[in-house]
Design goal:
This protein is of the alpha+beta class. The chain has 4 helices and 5 strands. The longest helix is centred in the middle third of the chain and has 27 residues, at 78-104. InterPro entries: NA-bd_OB-fold (IPR012340).
């Protein structure tokens, strides 16, 4: 049985090392994340199949082997060693599933949200006609990037280069500005 535990630990460890190498080389990214396919899947973490992945299976296999070998090293009989190995596998499976799910929540989609522009200052890129008589364009720093929006103003004309402050969001790509 010791040979079986050693085989499991070796096989699972090899898969983990291959995944690590593939990740460092840029292969295999995002295989354990939830993709929007339009189908209903139970990936809320309560389902075994929602947590099953190559990473979780490799970790469970590795810790099954390591747990069994460790139990045998300390003199446990075959039955106890198998229970220890299974417990280690289950613990590793759930720990890795939890970590993968937690890390996938850290992703940022990179979308600049227009509502975060309110209160920010920027400059006029294309003249903004006064009294809401037309649209111009402004550039505003939002979420560590410069974003260009259509702009209107209730005040007088704003020439190119004039400093402005965003006071409201009117549509998905239009803001209201005022002179600073």
């Amino acid at each position: 049985m010791d040979t079986f535990y050693l085989f499991c630990a070796g096989l699972g460890g090899t898969v983990i090392l291959l995944q690590l190498a593939a990740g460092l080389l840029g292969f295999g990214a995002d295989h354990d994340t939830d993709h929007d396919t339009g189908a209903d899947h139970d990936h809320d973490g309560n389902s075994f199949f929602g947590m099953l992945s190559v990473r979780t299976a490799a970790a469970a296999l590795t810790f099954f082997g390591l747990g069994g070998l460790t139990a045998r090293y300390y003199g446990a009989d075959e039955a106890l060693a198998t229970v220890v190995a299974a417990a280690a596998a289950v613990a590793a499976f759930y720990a890795v599933a939890f970590l993968v799910r937690s890390l996938s929540g850290l992703k940022a989609d990179g979308t600049a949200r227009i509502e975060r522009a309110v209160g920010r200052t920027g400059s006029v890129y294309l003249r903004v006609p006064g009294t809401r008589s037309g649209h111009g364009k402004v550039q505003v720093a939002v979420q560590n990037r410069t974003v260009e929006y259509q702009a209107v103003t209730a005040g007088p004309d704003l020439p190119t280069g004039a400093p402005v402050r965003v006071v409201a969001v009117l549509t998905a790509d239009t803001v209201e500005v005022e002179a600073v």
